[in-house]
Fold:
Amino acid sequence: MADCTSLQRLIAGYRAFREGAWEQNRARYRMLAEHGQAPGVMVIGCCDSRVDPSLLFGAGPGELFIVRNVANLVPPFEPHGDYHGTSAALEFAVTCLGVGHVIVLGHTHCGGIKALREGLAEAGETGDFIARWMSIMNPARAAVLDAHPGAPEETVQRALEEASIRNSLANLETFPFVRERLRDGRLQIHGWQFDITSGELRGLDREHNAFVPLG
Ligand SMILES: [Zn+2]
Structure:
C-alpha cells in the first residue's frame, strides 16, 4: 500500500500556502491570470528533488519559466518526428515569452551524471528511456574520461557535472532562434551550478572557462 504520509504532508503544505503566500500574492496572481505570464528568465534544471529553482532563488509566481529533466540536459536542435519536451519548452520561452535569460542549472551529486559516469546507460541497465536521453552527453563523457585517466570517482563526477552544463550551453546555441537572439543581444545564456553539500552557487565564467562563486 502506498505511503499516505507524504501526501498528507503535501496537503498540509498546500493549506499553509493558501493561508500564507497565496494571500500575500493575491493581487499578483490576479494580474498574472488576467494578463498572462511574462517571466524574464528560463531555468533548465535537473529533476532532482534537492534542487528546486524557485526555492533556491526565492522566486515568486510568474518570475521563472522552469523546465526540469534528468541531469539538466539540453538536446541539440533536431527538428524531426520524436517528442521533444525540453526543446518545446525552450522554443516557447524564447520565441513566445521572449525571456531575456536562459540559465542551465546543474548541481553536484547528480544521479543522472553518476549513471553516465558508471556507464549504466551504455550497459542498458537504466530502463527504456534514460540511456537514450543521457546519450546526449556521450561525446562530452568520452572527452572527460580521456582527460582524467585513473582519476578518483569524485573528480570524474565533478568534471562530468560541469561538462553537462557546458554541453547544454553549446547545444542551446544549435537552436536557430537562440543563436539569432544571442547575436542581437535579446538573449543571454548562463551555466550555473548548485553545490548541495556547501550550498554554494557557482557560475560558468565562459571567458576563463571556469566555475566561480556567485552571490
Ligand atoms: Zn541531477
